[in-house]
Amino acid sequence: MIKVFGYPNTRSLRITWLLEELGLDYDYQLVDLAKAEHHSDWYRAINPNGKVPAINDGDLVMFESAAIASYLADKYGDNRMIPEVGTLERGLYEQWNRYAVCELEQPLWTIAKSKFALPKEHRVAQIQPTSVWEFQQALKVLSQGLGDNDYLVGNRFTVADILVAQTLQWGVVFKQTIEQPNLQAYRERMLARPAVARAMQREADALANQQQTES
Questions:
Q1: Could you tell me the fold of the domain covering 2-80+195-214?
Q2: Is the pTM of this model over 0.85?
């Protein structure tokens, strides 16, 4: 069975959301960030970066959420969540996957690092206005690419939509403005999918169960 290492309200939602969309059974292993378990020896042996998510699927141990999602969709999705290799749609899929993590997410992660993720001596508060500006520039390109379409790639929901929608939600949590009406509607539409609620509940239950066990 696939094991997902994660924590609520992080990139691990990308993986639990996908698994719920695919209807796959999986084991969710909480990595308690509040207790710095992501820096523990046992978890560093799984993901030396000390971040979530990571997965274990048979003999494969893997980190990096976008790569994990494409792997799972290719292996278990029967092309439901990912276009076939060599097609025009696959090219667009790869484009938006990389855009999500390289352009859209990057300034948000910079904001996080400058506020809390990095040790205090390495935080640079002055970078935050630049990061806010970068995020807004990325939104403009994304809005243009989405246009009046329901999804980013063709006429169907793919992993690219999971990555982008989760990142847009991250922006909202970070109190970043999303002015484009098509992106506002897109985010709300994607997050209203039933699989999102199931994935979020699965992660929240894992944290609640651990807290109850320790109380």
A1: Glutaredoxin (3.40.30)
A2: yes
